[in-house]
Amino acid sequence: MGPQTVPATSNGYGLRHHDRPTATPMSGCNLGPVTRYLITGGAGFIGSHLAEALLVQGDEVSVLDSLSTGRFSNLAGVHDSPRFSFTQGSVLDELAVDQAVRGCDVVVHLAAAVGVKLIVEQPLYSLTTNIKGAITVLEAAHRYRRKVMVASSSEIYGKNNSGPLNEQSDRVLGSPTVARWAYSTSKAVDEILAYAYYHERDLPTIVVRLFNTVGPRQSPAYGMVIPRLVRQAVASEPLTVYGDGSQTRCFCHVADVVDGLIRLLHEPRAEGDVFNIGGTEEISIQQLAELIIVTTGSSSSIVHLPYEVAYEVGFEDMARRVPDVTKVGKLTGWRSERNLADILDDVIAEVLRDSGSQSWTDDGSVASSTSLSRTVPDDA
């Protein structure tokens, strides 16, 4: 099925892509008074927040999304903007991508198969979406000379448990028979394609490696740990922790991630390069589960689930994943402003709204997580 563009005449979403005049090629930070952005996967978690932020700063935004994992409801806050348009279509559809790219100045390519659960259960879909999708987007961007930001992943680093990981840290992978490392390889191919287009075709490209982005609108459906644990806690269900829970991660609020993306989009020196974006506050998953129980005031217990039960036999996880974000900080001044407590407050508030609950503490209020040092064990 071809692209389905929401008509401007029926609901105020703005012009269709093919109704727009061809954009002038853009590069660097001199994007003019109004920049027309295309966000692939823009109905997803990160993409919808990025769309809102770009519209707030006065730009135009078009979204191309198949809605296979994204949700149209994520775009509720921008529905009525005359500077916003939405097309339901896949990045695997060359015609849909061509039309969308032709009508923009800058492409932010976020469309991808995401989440460990989806990757493990549908490896062929994940590989096809990530690699062919990136090829289709980059080819169209080259055809119309559009600047492209390609979203990559911390999965690039594989089983490299050293840290913090900088952009030149080694990739340490397991067997290609393990679906997780196939996904990591697909994102590496995306990056290599972006670098090749920059060096061989003079196409302005930027690669961003995102580390565990969290916040409102993130679905727990594909194995995202914080939304899943929060929902379990709010429902007074046991919190399921995979393995022994000693694996550590860092989390970054989606608002901070969006800020980093926009800073890089406006920085010409970012072109042709790669940047980590993520939080640096390290915590084990066991401690995270304990913190969520305390913060929600839940009576839930914690149960440990072996990886082979949660995913598949032979599944491999990383003991530690911590980003080094020095590079993006030096270039743009970016740093994450919100801590884990802020992230949990926002996610819990959303879950409570969705569940219709008003409180989870004895005094009728959501337990505050603003003083993380009082609730996180000393060895976090």
Question: What layout of secondary structure does this protein have?
Answer:
Elements: E1 4-5, H1 8-11, E2 36-40, H2 45-56, E3 60-65, E4 84-88, H3 94-102, E5 106-109, H4 116-121, H5 123-144, E6 147-153, H6 179-201, E7 205-211, E8 213-214, H7 225-234, E9 239-242, E10 248-250, E11 252-253, H8 254-265, E12 273-278, E13 282-284, H9 285-296, E14 302-305, H10 307-310, H11 326-332, H12 340-355
Parallel strand pairs: 2-3, 2-5, 3-4, 5-6, 6-7, 7-12, 8-11, 9-14
Antiparallel strand pairs: 1-4, 10-13
Q: Can you describe what's shown?
A:
It is a single chain. With 380 residues, the chain is of the alpha/beta class. It folds into two domains: 29-214 and 253-278, NAD(P)-binding Rossmann-like Domain (Rossmann fold, 3-Layer(aba) Sandwich); 225-247 and 281-322 and 338-374, Alpha-Beta Complex (UDP-galactose 4-epimerase, domain 1). Helix content is 36%, strand content 16%. The chain is built from twelve helices and 14 strands. The protein has helices spanning 8-11, 45-56, 94-102, 116-121, 123-144, 179-201, 225-234, 254-265, 285-296, 307-310, 326-332, 340-355; strands at residues 4-5, 36-40, 60-65, 84-88, 106-109, 147-153, 205-211, 213-214, 239-242, 248-250, 252-253, 273-278, 282-284, 302-305. It has an eight-stranded mixed β-sheet with strand order 1-4-3-2-5-6-7-12, sandwiched between helices. A two-stranded parallel sheet has the order 8-11. Helix 2 (45-56) crosses helix 8, helix 7 runs parallel beside helix 9 and helix 7 packs across helix 12. The longest helix is centred in the middle third of the chain and has 23 residues, at 179-201. It is globular.
